Amino acid sequence: MGKDVIIACDFDSAQKTLDFLDKFKGKKPFVKIGMELYYAAGPSIVKAIKERGHKIFLDLKLHDIPNTVKKAMTVLSELGVDMCNVHAAGTKRMMSAAIEGLTRPDGTRPLLIAVTQLTSTDEQTMHDDLLIGEPLDKVVMHYARNAMDAGLDGVVCSPLEAGKVHGVCSDKFVTVTPGIRFAGGDVGDQKRVTTPQMAKELGSDYIVVGRPITAAEDPVAAYERCVAEFVG
Length: 232
Ligand code: C5P
Known about the structure:
Elements: E1 4-8, H1 14-22, E2 30-34, H2 35-41, H3 43-51, E3 56-62, H4 66-77, E4 83-87, H5 92-102, E5 111-115, H6 123-130, H7 136-149, E6 154-156, H8 159-168, E7 174-177, H9 196-202, E8 206-209, H10 211-214, H11 219-230
Parallel strand pairs: 1-2, 1-8, 2-3, 3-4, 4-5, 5-6, 6-7, 7-8
Bound molecules: cytidine-5'-monophosphate.
Cytidine-5'-monophosphate binds at residues 8, 10, 34, 118-119, 156, 178-180, 188, 190, 208-212.
């Protein structure tokens, strides 16, 4: 699995996003489009970024009945994105349906990864609100196994969980890991953070980096620092 740095383009308009990407001149970083940008700018922002030659992770975290997810995934696959995702909580049947919907007539499809438990959900909240009584770590690994059994390519997780996910699933099972900060950088609202270098050592396949790049004085230099530390 080729390691790469994915920039989380958490902007609220197409213009801000394209202005940001203009700074990269000839470079074509892998970008993540999340709900904020997609709901603000629609499928046309996906096409615009694709036409500029970037790889795209469309982070919409689908979770609905299998038939609805399957049909939605067919629409998303036609956008030509490289990676998209679902909530593993939607069940193995929903995840299998997502794969079916995502597979294009020529047999190709974007990578499909699963969100296990959101990093904003701690063990106490999972027990109290979701009535899931097992330890958080066990739930995350169980959901990762479900995703693998359903034919998905990997999960979103913390770099701190990447090694265990590879152990429980396989080394080929992709770990996409947010929560990245430079040594001494502003942590913001992330709880458990690792540096790009640590994420590499812990076995992450892709790191997702937002504000350390988007809010940097020199975003291109910050991106290059991530690539140098993570990809080497
Ligand atoms: O700015 P920052 O580097 O914290 O951005 C991380 C990105 O990864 C954001 O787009 C956030 O929504 C996403 N993400 C996350 N934790 C998860 C899943 C996604 O931080 N568990």
